[in-house]
Write a structure and sequence with these properties.
The chain has 125 residues and is an alpha/beta fold. 33% of the residues lie in helices and 22% in strands. The longest helix has 11 residues.
Length: 125
């Protein structure tokens, strides 16, 4: 089975542009109840991701006041070259990648490199 059959469609995934601030990312993640926010260009190309884990590390390591962090660009705290799979990849291959890299969420791209959704470990169980 291809991952496109098991992914969460991008319309239901928190997403922002590279210039959006951390508050916008947090608002989107809270509204859509996912622990990942896709950072993509206006054209839909994957630029990075921001996860709950990134946010925990940010709180524990950055000494700036919270209001200053919230207006900072979210991209500065996320992963700039995240792992991903293509929509026509097999679910088994995606699970193997997720296991090897110990990740819970994996962006799914179409053949043009545009984000079409996210594969979430919970959806695979």
């Amino acid at each position: 089975m291809h991952v496109s059959k098991r992914m969460i469609p991008i319309a239901k995934v928190p997403s922002i542009t590279p210039r959006d601030n951390l508050k916008k990312a947090l608002d989107s993640m809270t509204k859509l109840s996912l622990g990942i926010c896709i950072i993509k260009t206006e054209e839909g190309k994957l630029e990075g991701i921001l996860t709950d884990g990134d946010l925990r590390r940010l709180i524990l390591t950055v000494q700036n006041p919270l209001p200053a962090l919230l207006v900072s660009e979210a991209m500065a705290f996320g992963t700039k070259n995240p792992k991903f799979v293509f929509a026509d990849s097999l679910v088994g291959d995606a699970i193997t990648l997720m296991d090897e890299k110990q990740i819970w969420d994996l962006p799914v791209l179409d053949s043009e490199g545009k984000v079409t959704g996210v594969l979430n470990r919970h959806n695979l169980v």
